[in-house]
Design goal:
10% of the residues lie in helices and 41% in strands. The protein has two helices and eight strands; from the N terminus they run αβββββαβββ. It has 178 residues and is mainly β.
Amino acid sequence: MTDAYSDELREYMFSATPGLVCIDTIEFRHPAFTDADGNPVAIRVANDPTGFSATLEDGAPMNAGETVAFERGRFDLVTPDSPDQGLPKATLQIANVTQELSPYLDLGVSTGAPVDVTLRSYLSDDFTKPAMVIDGLSVTGAKSNVLRVEVDLGLDDKINAPLHDLIYRTDVFRGLSR
């Protein structure tokens, strides 16, 4: 997480050039998100009134190094905290969920697979690379009303993930029997 911020973003945070803006984006990925031809797609939204196209980082989960479109949207993000116990969590509130986003979110919530999320920030003078990337988030909960959707995001729990899926049986591991 400490390497998430680029030098350009650090400079922007401490001495912003007039007219320079940091634009936050979110990307949702799920195995059920497909286009009309059945190809996997990612849902990308920019916290920007017009939307824009930008180049993803080389290690992006989908469309690595490609220029992709971010749809306009409005969202508030409470960035991941640093709790003493447990994993960090973030909250995302998406206002006026568009007709394009709603069906995908409904589909993602109704299936068992997690919805993966990547947060990126771009500086308005350089859309060739993100100024910040936070990957490894997934939707842990969601609630909605007429005006907005609130999504809880959590980091992947790699520490408590099983090392492998072996089942230790005495017929395979004979040293276990007495």
